[in-house]
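Record type: ASSEMBLY
Status: queued
Input:
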Amino acid sequence: KAGVTQTPRYLIKTRGQQVTLSCSPISGHRSVSWYQQTPGQGLQFLFEYFSETQRNKGNFPGRFSGRQFSNSRSEMNVSTLELGDSALYLCASSSLTSGSYNEQFFGPGTRLTVL
Amino acid sequence: DQQVKQNSPSLSVQEGRISILNCDYTNSMFDYFLWYKKYPAEGPTFLISISSIKDKNEDGRFTVFLNKSAKHLSLHIVPSQPGDSAVYFCAASETGANSKLTFGKGITLSVRP
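Status: finished
Output:
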């Protein structure tokens, strides 16, 4: 099976702009989660989508949003970018039928730099 | 408030010896724990997990131990190999929020040849 793919891999934006990141989960996986990784805060949970519905949400401002399509692909959007949004954004997918409870498979990430 | 803590930022061990990576948590609602390994420019890769109903889980060279009363878990790698050099993250989740993983800040393991 192909792994989790994320596009683009690298992105440079300026403050105030908005950005959309894309994630394609492993085939058959219906749950997609997003995480932000920064040197200071480590890996932090943004939100999780399952069957096109947001099921869990982390402690991030409303500028961070996401959605999931019927084919389980997911996008996350960050509006009004701030310098502090510079980070590695990771997407992970999981299958509820997996024998490994809650095992999540991560993509390579999108490196966002805000100037 | 950091609910999952990996207090040592780095660890260096000799090839062939045991690596012990520690993790502490504060949220008593956590009932499932995972270890991930991460190389630069790649996403985390799942290594091993343990449910709170167990105190040990083994997979090849990797063993995870869970001490619920101390809210402590550890990852043992025996024998350590140079290819094990990476950043290791401890993560936890709780029933009802299964896909929300709370991560520690990671520990950098260096295995010297």
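Annotation: Residues 83 and 114 of chain A are 5 Å apart (CA to CA).
Annotation: Chain A has no helices and eleven strands.
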